[in-house]
Amino acid sequence: MISPETLVFVLIGASILLALVVVIRPSITASREGKVIAFLALFIVPVVTAGVGASEHMERSEQTQFCLSCHIMEPYGKSLYVDDPAYIPAAHFQNHRIPADQACYTCHTDYAMFGTIQAKWEGLHHVYVYWFGTPMNPIRLYHPYNNRECLHCHAGARSFEDSTHMAMMDDLKANKISCTTSGCHDTFHNVDKLGEVKFWKPLE
Amino acid sequence: MLNKLRISGVLLILGLVVEALSLCWNTALSFMSFVVIGGLFFASGVLLFLYSLVSAKPSVE
Asked: What ipTM does the predicted assembly reach?
């Protein structure tokens, strides 16, 4: 089975070869067939290839490795390895409650109709600020964390549907009580305390 | 027109090379290279090709 990545590289190679034909022999456009080849080589195929490449980049931008490639995010990546189950992101990451290779994206995307688009847009904004502006220090979320992102996975799960959670379910859904700031599950990345904690080392 | 086609092809090939190189890494920098540098080559190559079409003198049959 050919991977999407291989397919993109094959497409890029084919596009380059096709464009080279026109670059080396532009005189082929004198004929009707040559005009068609030139139109394909210099317009249709490159546009499709660029679109496929952009799509591949978008897919890759969901990966944990991508988010942590910015220096400013390194402590947040490190916090995923804190050896303390009270650290919510670390517990989710280490126990694969979320896909480990898409850890940031899974929890920091809005599970709403345009959540993915909004996440990509905010990601572009982050990249812009990182390279051309001044990132906020410390980093803060744009909005208070929405319970919807927790309930997307936890609602309906057997371990979640105990009397405590069920008694406050309406308030949780309405965000009247926050999962993250009501004193129940309030230990997150805590990057300023990373010097005081132990870290988990995964077996290779 | 032939010269414009040639330049357009070269610009598109450069854009494709940048795209291929940017896909060798999965970092914000490679993504930005693809969007900014690759996008610039792609856009200028395609636009030059389209311009060469509309600016071409009609051939005499």
From this structure: 0.89
